[in-house]
């Protein structure tokens, strides 16, 4: 059973690896184009708060990555190496794009603070309107049949209403600008 499942995950792992290799340039170009505008408009304290949330998020992500790696290696061993690889790549994507597990790993009232910050600055809406299709394109690629529709731990917009999805993308945008 594990061997059969592992062979299916091989294609998903290859898709995630190709995704990481191909999409990083466009995404980084967008961030580079907009980060100075955002950085010059926010206070040092606001930027530090965003970055603290990113550190908390990455710390949580790294803990979960290690827990998955340990558990899956014990469970599947060599027969499940592609399952382990797929989930490790999933964690890399979460780290690089900050677009998954919206409420997990964000401490205290971080999400609400980011939305309040966002609402203080009207110029962020224009940047958001450019960012949203980029993130949605990333999600579409990752949840395509080629990537086996989130076989592993990647979860994008699962169960989110339109309003919550928009909120999550706004938070992701701010986090991605300062990671």
Which properties best describe this structure?
179 residues, elongated, 6 helices, mainly alpha, 0% strand, single chain
Radius of gyration, rounded? 17 Å
Structure classification:
mainly alpha
Q: Beta-sheet strand percentage?
A: under 5%
Which series of helices and strands comes N to C?
HHHHHH
| Mean model confidence by pLDDT | 85
Number of strands: 0
Distance from first to last alpha carbon: 40 Å
Shape: elongated
**Helicity, in percent?**
over 70%
Low-confidence stretches: none
Largest sheet descriptor: none
Question: Treating each run of at least 4 consecutive H or I residues as one helix, how many helices?
Answer: 6
The count of domains is 1
Describe the protein.
The structure is a single chain. The protein is an all-alpha fold and 179 residues long. The protein has one domain (2-178). The protein is built from six helices and no strands. The longest helix has 40 residues, at 2-41. It is elongated, with a radius of gyration of 17 Å. It starts with a helix and ends with a helix. The mean pLDDT is 85.
């Amino acid at each position: 059973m594990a061997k059969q499942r592992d062979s299916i995950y091989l294609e998903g792992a290859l898709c995630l690896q190709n995704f990481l290799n191909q999409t990083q340039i466009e995404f980084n170009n967008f961030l580079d184009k907009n980060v100075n505008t955002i950085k010059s408009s926010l206070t040092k304290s606001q930027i530090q708060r965003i970055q603290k949330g990113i550190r908390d998020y990455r710390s949580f992500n790294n803990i979960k990555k290690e827990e998955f790696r340990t558990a899956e290696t014990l469970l599947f061993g060599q027969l499940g190496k592609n399952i382990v690889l797929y989930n490790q790549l999933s964690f890399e994507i979460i780290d690089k794009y900050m677009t998954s597990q919206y409420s997990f790993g964000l401490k205290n009232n971080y999400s609400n603070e980011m939305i309040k910050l966002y609402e203080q600055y009207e110029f962020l809406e224009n940047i958001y309107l450019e960012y949203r299709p980029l993130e949605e394109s990333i999600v579409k690629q990752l949840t395509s049949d080629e990537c086996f529709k989130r076989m592993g731990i990647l979860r994008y917009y699962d169960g989110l209403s339109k309003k919550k999805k928009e909120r999550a993308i706004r938070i992701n945008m701010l986090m991605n600008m300062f990671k």
